[in-house]
Amino acid sequence: MSVHIAAKKGEIAKIVLQPGDPLRAKYIADHFLEEVKLVSQTRNIYYFTGKYKGKEISVGASGMGIPSIGIYSYELFTEFDVDTIIRIGTCGAYTSDLKLFDLLNVEFSASESTYAKFAWGIEGDLISHQGTAFGQINETAKGMDLDIKPTHIHTSDIFYRKEEGLPALAAKYNCSAVEMEAFALFANAQHLGKNAATILTVSDIIPTREQISADQREKALKPMIELALETALKF
Ligand SMILES: O=P(O)(O)O[C@H]1O[C@H](CO)[C@@H](O)[C@H]1O
Ligand SMILES: O=c1cc[nH]c(=O)[nH]1
Hints:
EC number: 2.4.2.3
Keywords: Glycosyltransferase, Transferase
CATH superfamily: Nucleoside phosphorylase domain
Protein name: Uridine phosphorylase
Radius of gyration: 16 Å
Bound molecules: 1-O-phosphono-alpha-D-ribofuranose, uracil
CATH class: Alpha Beta
Order of helices and strands: EHEEEHEEHEHEHEHEEHH
Number of domains: 1
Number of strands: 11
Enzyme class: transferase
Pfam families: PNP_UDP_1
Shape: globular
Number of helices: 8
Strand content: 25-35%
């Protein structure tokens, strides 16, 4: 049991799939896992542990933003001995070259956030995925005939902003999409020597204002969910 996760030691698997949305975690547990147990619901941030094709997997939410995933991923790695976290999130595309429901595998995250510097003394505004999960996702996607793009993304603290143009940091690192958590997940994993990857589904095309619905953000992300589950079998 940690400050924010009520599970007992041993109730969380070595690999955790982590959406931002607690109801997406519940949807995955309800539709894809067997022998499921709800192991934490502190603050309504659900964590479930169950079996996928016989393999023990946990799925639980990070909440939204760097501070929130900073807390949950740190407690998972340090208090529950989790080895690998695969974030499964949604993102906004900065370019209309990307389409709704495209899948991205995050190679690097760029951020204006001071989280990595002040938490761990990690300097710089760009952090890589950590460990082998990124490569396993690409391999697994090939085997499933799924198109996934290795991508640089922007992890921002901002969802709504005055200026609609490409933020300077996103331009600097050629980021084609934006979300709000990967940078802190990668920073925690780098500091602790753990595996961390992020798969994103494009939910918004920022230049054209196309977007998927709130219900689709919870339930229509099946290719990303199946890709993460199939990848988890390899750990
Ligand atoms: O769909 P999730 O995983 O929550 O990810 C994205 O969606 C939220 C914003 O709507 C932020 O958390 C952002 O990173
Ligand atoms: O952070 C995010 C997530 C989805 N869509 C956005 O525009 N931003």
